[in-house]
Structures are given as C-alpha cells and as structure tokens.
Amino acid sequence: MPIKLKDDIKDKLIASLQRYFDEELDMEIGELKSELILDYLMQEAGAVIYNQAIRDAQAYIADRSDDMDGTLYHPEFTYWEK
Question: Can you list the alpha helix ranges (DSSP code H) found in the chain?
C-alpha cells in the first residue's frame, strides 16, 4: 500500500530536505531533486517505517491489555467496608 501525503505535508518535507542539504551537507539542491529524493525514500523506506510503527503499536497495546485486570479492576461489594 503506497503512502500518500497531503500536498502541504509533501511541500514541507521537500523544504526540509532542501534545508538539510544546505545546512548539514553544504549543498544546495532544487525542488525537483528534493522531490525525487523524497519519492525514493517514501518508496524504499516508507513501508519499513510503517511496518515498524505497526509492530510498535501492537506491542504497546499488548502491554496495556496484559495489565488490563490490574489497571481497570474495581473492587466489588465494598459498601459494608466503610
């Protein structure tokens, strides 16, 4: 499943790539090159990052659901314990 970005998000990422190349690598690149790099990274690394995020979310949910009894348990028949 290809990852689709909203135009405004893609524009911000392109600008960020241009800034990174300029400030960190002392190399100016144009908008077209930035967009090509972004498209490559999205296609090549996007699925890897997405799959890892899903695994992380599953682990987080599993950790929370394992402790559901302890976290959500409410004592019963406590009226007379006052």
Answer: 7-24, 31-66, 68-72
Tracing tokens 């144009």 back to the chain, one arrives at 30
- C-alpha dihedral over 61, 62, 64, 65, to 10 degrees? 110
Distances (CA, A) of 9 to 4, 21, 30, 59: 10, 18, 17, 28
What is the span of the domain harbouring residue 68?
A: 7-74
Q: What is the mean pLDDT of residues 17-45?
A: 96
Residue 81 lies in a domain: no
Q: What is the pLDDT of residue 1?
A: 67
Sign of CA dihedral 2, 54, 5, 24: negative
What pLDDT is stored for residue 36 in this prediction? 97
Whole-prediction pTM value?
0.70
82 within some domain = no
